[in-house]
Write a structure and sequence with these properties.
The protein has 9 helices and 10 strands. By secondary structure, the protein is α/β, with parallel strands linked by helices. It has 2 domains: 168 residues, Rossmann fold, CATH 3.40.50; 69 residues, no CATH class. The chain has a 6-stranded mixed sheet with strand order 6-7-8-3-9-10, sandwiched between helices. The protein has a 4-stranded antiparallel sheet with strand order 2-1-4-5, covered by helices on one side. The chain is globular, with a radius of gyration of 18 Å. The N and C termini lie far apart (38 Å). Bound molecules: adenosine-5'-diphosphate (ADP) and magnesium ion (MG). The site of adenosine-5'-diphosphate has 11 residues, from β2 and α1.
Length: 245
């Protein structure tokens, strides 16, 4: 059974149809890529799944139960965590506190100790333990991306949504990120939905890839299948190629 089912989801913003009858499934343990040109609707998928936006039509089912009745602040507790395309860290807070707040822990001394432990473990896992006590402001961009990933991991999700984790990273950092994503999936028994513009990364780590264009699913399959799909090639023509950063 699929862990996440997006079923016939439509979401409009005024006259823009950001998602137009989109359906796809993500299976337990897989890394599913979600790609498409800018404006295709990828981030909107994340925002619908995490209940930031309500779909105008359609269903989102997680682990057999509808997500549409789950309020946004309960999404993490249901087992879904995400990172953001544009970093959403608090610059004045320490790295550790940034990770702690992301876990949406309930109050109380015991809960706090447990959460700090999980936060430190997650920081260690992404290679950011050394900066745990430093304010987020001023850290290198690549490190901040790792901190965001740690924040999502510390919530111990079953489904991890990554929104362009390679955005703004240099070549070495992207390579390291690919290894990290694979390691995380293994170590945590996680399912990952990966939105990514960096083709080498997404094609290298994904088991299956779903392709959106203008809010519609135009292809789905293995990375090999998707890469030679004429509709996909067509959708990417006219897009500036990913700069070899
Ligand atoms: N909150 C919003 N208000 C208005 N338009 C939005 C909003 N969020 C997304 N859109 C529009 O929906 C479309 C899909 O956006 P998005 O999901 O961010 O695309 P992607 O992540 O694939 O680049 C775009 O045309 C975008 O401008
Ligand atoms: Mg986006």
């Amino acid at each position: 059974m699929a862990l996440l089912e997006v079923k016939n989801v439509t979401r409009r913003f005024g006259g823009i149809v950001a998602l137009d009858d989109v359906s796809f499934e993500v299976f337990p343990g897989e890394i599913a890529g979600l790609i498409g040109p800018n404006g295709a609707g990828k981030t909107t998928v994340f925002n619908v799944v995490t209940r930031v936006y309500r779909p105008d039509a359609g269903q989102v089912v997680f682990d057999g139960r509808s997500l549409l009745r789950t309020p946004p602040h309960r999404i993490v507790r249901r087992g879904i965590a995400r990172t953001f395309q544009n970093l959403e860290l608090f610059p004045g807070m320490s790295v550790l506190d940034n990770v702690v707040v992301g876990t949406h822990a309930s109050a109380g001394w015991f809960a706090e100790r447990r959460v700090r432990k999980a936060a430190l473990e997650a920081l260690d896992e992404v290679g950011a333990a050394d900066v745990a006590g430093r304010p987020a402001a001023g850290l290198p961009f690549g490190m901040l991306k790792r901190v965001e990933l740690a924040r999502a991991l510390a919530a111990k999700p079953r489904l991890l949504l990554l929104d362009e984790p390679a955005g703004g990273l240099n070549h070495e950092e992207v390579e390291a990120l690919g290894d990290l994503i694979r390691r995380i999936r293994k170590g945590h028994d996680l399912t990952i939905l990966l939105v990514e513009h960096h083709m080498n990364l997404v094609m290298g780590v994904s088991d299956r890839v779903h392709v959106l264009d203008f809010g519609r699913t135009i292809a789905a399959g293995t990375p090999q299948e998707v890469q030679r799909d004429p509709a996909v090639i067509e959708a990417y023509l006219g897009e500036a190629p990913e700069s070899p950063s």
